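Q&A log
Question type: sequence-to-structure
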Amino acid sequence: MASSDPSSSAPPGGDLRRQIDELNARAWTEHFAHPRPALELAREAAKLAALQDYLPGLAASIRTRGVCLFMLSEFNEAAGDLQTACTLFRSIGDRAGEATMLRWLGHDKARTGDYGAALRLHTHALVIYREIGDRSGEADTLLAIGLNHHQIGDYAEALRYSQAALTIYEELQETRGVGLCLNNLGNAHSMLGEHDQALDHYRRSLKLLRQAGFTNFGSLLNNIGSTYRALGLPQPALEYFSRARAEFQGAGDRRGEIAALNNVAEVTHMLGRHAEALELFETALAASRELGTRYEEAAILLHLGEALAAQGDGAGAVRRLEEAVRVGGEVGARQLALQANRALARIHEAAGDIAEAFRCYKAYRELESEIFGQEADQR
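Response status: OK
Response body:
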C-alpha cells in the first residue's frame, strides 16, 4: 500500500491522478473478498483526490469506501458515502457509477425492510445499465431484484429474476456471478419447499465462489443451515450456523454474525438446551442493539418470545413479543410484526384473556391484509 501521507509519496501533476486511479482500481478489485484492506486503499485515494479536486477519483474512492463500510456493518457511515458517491457520479455524467450506487442504496433500503424503495432503486439502476449496455451491471441488478422478490415472499419471481441474471453471468463467464446466482436460486427453491434442489444449488455455489477467491462464506453456510432446519435436522443445522458465525466473525461482518447467532440460538432451543438458548438469544439481542441493526433486533425478539412461550414463561414471552411488534413496526418489518402478533394472540387465548387475544388477532389480520396489498403493488 502507498504511504498515507500524500506530500511524501505522491508524484506531481497527472502522475498523482494516475496514482489515485490505480488505488481505486485495486480497492474495487479487492472489495468483495477483502473489504477491510480495500477500505484503507479507498480512504487513501479519497484523501489524494480531495487534495487534487479530482472528482472522478473522489467519486470512485467514496463509492468503494461506502460499499466496504456497508459490508463491514458500518451502516450509518456507509449510507452517507453511497449517497454522496451517487451524487458525484451523476454530476460528472458517469452513468455506470450512478447505477452502481443506486443498486447499493437499494441494498441499504432492503436491509431496513423497505422493499418497495429497494425495488424502485434497483429498477432505476437496471434501466440505466440496459441503456448503456453494461451487461455485468444488468446481471448484478437482476440478481438484486430477485432477492427483493424473495424478501417479500414472491419466490416464483425471485427464481425468474435470478435465472435471468444467471443466463447473463454464464454468457460473460463470470464465475463470481454464477456462484451468487446459484445461492439465490437455492434460497428460492428452499422457500418453495424444494430442499434437495436448494442444497444442490448451495453446494455448487460454494465451489464456484471458492474458485472466484471469496473468503467469507457466512451467508451461504447460513442458508445451508436454514435448509437443514427446515428439514427438521437441527444438529447439522447447528453445525452450519456455527460455521457461518465463525466466518462472519473472521470477516468483521457483525450484522451477519448476529443473524447467525440468532439461528444458533433457535436450533439450540430445538435441541432442548433451553437455558443455553436463552443466553444466546440475549447475547444476540444486546449485540443487535449496540450495532443498531433494528431489523435483526425485531427478529431476535420474535424468536426469543416464541422460545419463552414454549418454555411456559407467558409473561416473559408477551414482553418480548410486544417489543418485536413495536420494533418491527418502527422499521417497516411488517412480516415480523405479523408473526409476533399471531404468537401473542395464541398466548393470550391459552391464558383465557379473550379480549387481548382478539386485539392481537385483529392486528395480525390487518397487517396480513396490508402486506398482501403492498406485495401486489410491488409485483
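Response note: Residues 313 and 351 are 12 Å apart (CA to CA).
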